[in-house]
Write a structure and sequence with these properties.
Structural class: alpha+beta
Strand order of the largest sheet: 2-4-5-6-7-8-9-12-13-14-15-18-19-20-21-22
Shape: elongated
Distance between the termini: 101 Å
Strand content: over 45%
Largest sheet: 16 strands, antiparallel, barrel
Number of helices: 3
């Protein structure tokens, strides 16, 4: 302001000295004052910018100090997989363990003599073992816990592939020693042991020719034994949608010429081949299966080397009746499929007089109706049968011709996973000579699943 006052005073003095140019002097003075005002405004703006820059720099320095002195934030870890609702985690896999404890008490009457103590027939119904030709004895009572079972499974994703496995064992198929004086002995037996990778299954599993979903609920180990396909064996199976194909362990059972003890031949060069198609609908489900196999027997001692073909077809269904009941059906037929049906009631083939194999025809099936009386109470009525087409000119008359059984049971589940029940069954077996034997059995059982 002092500079401005001095300039104004100087200009005024000059104007007084040069009176003739007074107008020009006034214009010059006004322009000078305007320029001075512009300079002052620019100077003030520059001062404001400097102050703002210093303020921002100070704030940035404070932020840097806070960041340097603040504790480091913890590193965020990848979220752990949720714990499974059933089983437990082990690496990338979910592991589960389960099974059941089952105790049976049976009272059996055989029309033609009791099986010896320790015979598997005393544990469960084997159609081909019902005695024929013996003397009637009193009712035989047996207790056992050999159907007790346990299993272990794993399931998970490995390198983008769905991988699962199952190991399952029980004590049923190997009864062990007959001596029960101080304990009821039993031997563990491998039931199922396989791994699945996406659509592939490799290991021991139910044959692809079988439909386990239609097996009736029974107190007996199998129930509809004569009429059902029943086999567990090592295989490689591929499943895509409703279709599945498999190659499975081959084994040929042979009747000697004119009868005699069963020959179990392990001479097949090719595996057994199966195919299955399964359909599930709101009313139930239905499956169709086919089996193609090589039957082969070699015996250098008798100069036998024979091969023939076996084939089979099976259809099964479970049909819903109302909201809780159901009907279960299976029919199976073919030639050379004896070991797959009815617990090998018939052999696969018979040797003729020249040592050549002749496949044996079989037709088998069952029908079962399951009714739920009320919550926790249910019953099944089961009929099962098998007929064998033997050429008696080469099989003889001592081979099995037919078998059938009928079962009726009542099962109660007082609490979850715990069943108690009773089943009454009648079964008979007939051979080609016309001789027959029958068995009547009452089974009481208790079963707890875990």
């Amino acid at each position: 302001m002092m500079i401005k006052s001095s300039l104004v005073a100087g200009c005024a003095a000059a104007a007084m000295l040069f009176a003739p140019g007074a107008a020009l002097a006034q214009d010059a003075q006004a322009a000078l004052e305007a320029r001075i005002a512009q300079l002052e405004a620019e100077l003030n703006a520059l001062k404001s910018e400097v102050v703002a820059a210093r303020t921002q720099q100070a704030a940035q320095q404070q932020d840097i100090i806070r960041l340097e002195t603040r504790p480091a934030a913890p590193v965020q870890q990848a979220a752990a997989p949720a714990a499974p609702s059933d089983g437990f985690r082990m690496g990338d896999l979910t592991v589960k363990f389960g099974g059941f404890v089952k105790v049976d008490a049976s009272a059996s009457n055989y029309s033609d003599g009791d099986p010896v103590n320790g015979d598997a027939l005393r544990e469960f119904h084997i159609p081909g073992s019902i005695p024929i030709g013996g003397a009637d004895e009193d009712t035989a009572t047996d207790f056992n816990a050999r159907q007790t079972r346990f299993w272990l499974t794993t399931d998970g994703l490995i390198s983008g592939h769905k991988v699962s496995s199952r190991l399952e064992m029980d004590f049923q198929t190997l009864p062990g020693t007959a001596d029960q004086r101080t304990t009821s002995p039993a031997n563990p037996a491998l039931r199922r042991a396989f791994v699945t990778i996406d659509n592939w299954l490799i290991g021991q599993e139910w044959t692809n020719f079988q439909n386990t979903a239609v097996l009736p609920e029974s107190a007996d180990f199998i129930g509809a034994a004569e009429g059902t396909v029943f086999a567990r064996q090592v295989q490689v199976r591929y499943t895509r949608g409703p279709f599945s194909l498999s190659v499975e362990n081959p084994e040929t059972t042979v009747t000697p010429f004119n009868g005699g003890a069963r020959i179990i031949a392990d001479d097949s060069s090719l595996p057994d081949f199966t195919a299955r198609y399964a359909v599930t609908k709101p009313w139930g489900d239905v499956q169709f299966a086919g089996l193609l196999r090589q039957l082969k027997y070699q015996n250098p001692a008798t100069d036998i080397d024979s091969t023939t073909t076996g084939w089979g077809l099976s259809a099964s269904t479970k049909i819903k009746v109302g909201s809780k009941d159901d009907i279960r059906l299976m029919v199976t037929g073919g030639e050379g499929i004896g070991r797959y049906v009815g617990l090998n009631f018939s052999n696969d083939a018979v040797l003729d007089a020249s040592g050549e194999l002749d496949a044996i025809g079989v037709v088998a099936g069952f029908a079962a109706y399951r009714h739920v009386w009320s919550p926790g109470w249910r019953s099944s009525l089961i009929w099962s049968a098998q007929n064998v087409d033997n050429d008696t000119s080469i099989t003889g008359l001592a081979v099995n011709r037919s078998a059938q059984s009928i079962h009726a049971n009542l099962i109660w589940s007082p609490v979850k996973a715990f069943d108690v029940g009773a089943e009454l069954m009648f079964a008979d077996r007939e051979i080609e000579s016309g001789a027959s034997g029958d068995m009547t059995r009452l089974i009481l059982f208790a079963k707890y699943g875990f």
